[in-house]
Amino acid sequence: MLIYNIGMLAGILPEGVGRLRGADIGRLESLTDAWLLVRDGRIADFGTMDTCPSREGADDIDARRGIVLPAFCDCHTHLVYAGSREGEFRDKIAGMSYAEIAARGGGILNSARRLAEATEDDLYEESLRRLRQICASGTGVVEIKTGYGLTLDSELKMLRVIARLREAVPQMAIRATFLGAHAVGPDYTGRQEAYVDHVIDDMLPAVAAQGVADYVDVFCERGFFTAGQTSRILQAGRSHGLLPRLHADQLLRSGGTATGIAAGALSVDHLEAAGPDEIALLAASDTIGVGLPGASFFLSDPYAPLNDIIAAGGTVALASDYNPGTSPSGSMLFVWALGCIKMRLTPEAALNAATINGATALGLQADYGSVTRGKRASLNIFDAPSLAFIPYAYTTPTLVATVR
Length: 404
Fold this sequence. Notes:
21% strand; nine-stranded parallel β-sheet; 16 strands
């Protein structure tokens, strides 16, 4: 496939370059009046139109002077869930906090009940619709967490659904995270430490044996799991070959960032409550700080201080946090816009955070996240007069084609 007549080809990186940290995240290499050749699903070559190969293939695409970018890499979602939680939406409008809703049996436990009641086939069909929707809206790489099971059987059911999604939509790179420690399971109410032991002794071995999960995650937060418990679970997960990632410092400064970095986590995600200590730790580490502006927007909460992490020399990414309770949208186009409008990132920095750094947060930077010879051809084509127009006109349907 030859994509030709490209007005702007952006997100170009040399082979071997992954994360963009510090001020480098604001730099976006591009070509104007360009072409790009895809062979066997990978980027074979690209250049300016004065060097364009002959156009003879039936699958060739005229970009019509549009903008071609790497597809979004959404490194944090809870896409597999049953039903919806618009009743809690009304509670939020009435002024109830996330913690108050959770304390009365809403939130994660609400979704766990619904998931337990759903058949695996129904859960798969619901999730497949969401997956196809985000694929069509520009996402080429997606991480999907468990964590609405909270029992061994339901957690394994979620992983089986993720495995089926991989088979159904092979053009997307789909990675799975075991988040059994999303909340204390309902069978262990009042016995938090016993539930942690259950996650480590029973769930993790069964999850690893199933062979679907790639990562392990914990909701390190007051009222959920302590830093010490989180460390134990992450270490146990690593012993089973699952790379650590972490929910950290969302509602309060919980010690999650320090715990994740000490465990060698690929990323620590949320960070709405992160302060100077967490920023300094991220700047001195290779752990990526992932901002989830969709959750801040939906909850009217503070936004993660990504610009401060960038200024300190750290690495940041953006993701959707697609879930039924706090971010019921998987639109990475909207995340890009929020990164600019609410987090004050430049369009270039926000795009890099949503592509190459998102891929690096999953360890997939060798194949995804940039326009690089040899990488998978996971691309989006936009009809827009400039790069900044895309997040600026965030409800305008600028995405006209995807290449996977």
